[in-house]
Specification:
This protein is of the alpha/beta class. The protein is built from seven helices and seven strands.
Length: 150
């Protein structure tokens, strides 16, 4: 699971509880000065954009358990979502208002149990599925070069 840069946006409680429920899965985020490990939770130093895209190509799922008690988070559109979609990765996310129109491409969750269930489902998604192709197409539609007419 890749959660991106863990800032105040991520619900740390959900993140840790879900990771504890899934000890066989590695949860990776960025932001520390050096690589740290706490059971199956890893935090690595930040990567440059080209390194990040290479890293993402090795991931299985994008994970966005945002803290919805903060209205700013509830209404955000995480840029990492488009990186995940560009790779065709399944995404498990909090129910952010501004990404609801992606509901056919994202697994939305609210509780720890829902996150764990959706993450398991995402991990078992066929890597050649039409859904992955659809995600890549949707990401392309949102590239700046394809939106200049707007």
């Amino acid at each position: 699971m890749y959660a991106g840069l863990k800032t105040k946006r991520v619900d740390e409680n959900i993140y840790k509880l879900v990771a504890n429920k899934m000890p066989e899965v590695s949860f990776v985020s960025f932001g520390s000065k050096k690589l740290t490990k706490d059971n199956n939770i890893y935090e690595a130093p930040w990567l440059e954009k080209h390194e990040m895209l290479t890293f993402l190509s090795e991931c299985q799922v994008g994970f966005m358990p945002y803290d919805l008690s903060n209205p700013h988070n509830l209404h955000c559109i995480p840029l990492k979502l488009f990186d995940f979609l560009a790779e065709g990765l399944p995404v498990v996310s909090s129910k952010l208002i501004n990404i609801q129109d992606f509901n056919s491409l994202i697994y939305f969750s609210e509780t720890v149990e829902e996150y764990a269930f959706c993450l398991q489902k995402a991990l078992h998604e066929d890597s050649s599925s039409d859904l992955r192709k659809e995600r890549k197409n949707r990401a392309q539609e949102h590239q700046t070069t394809n939106l200049t007419h707007k």
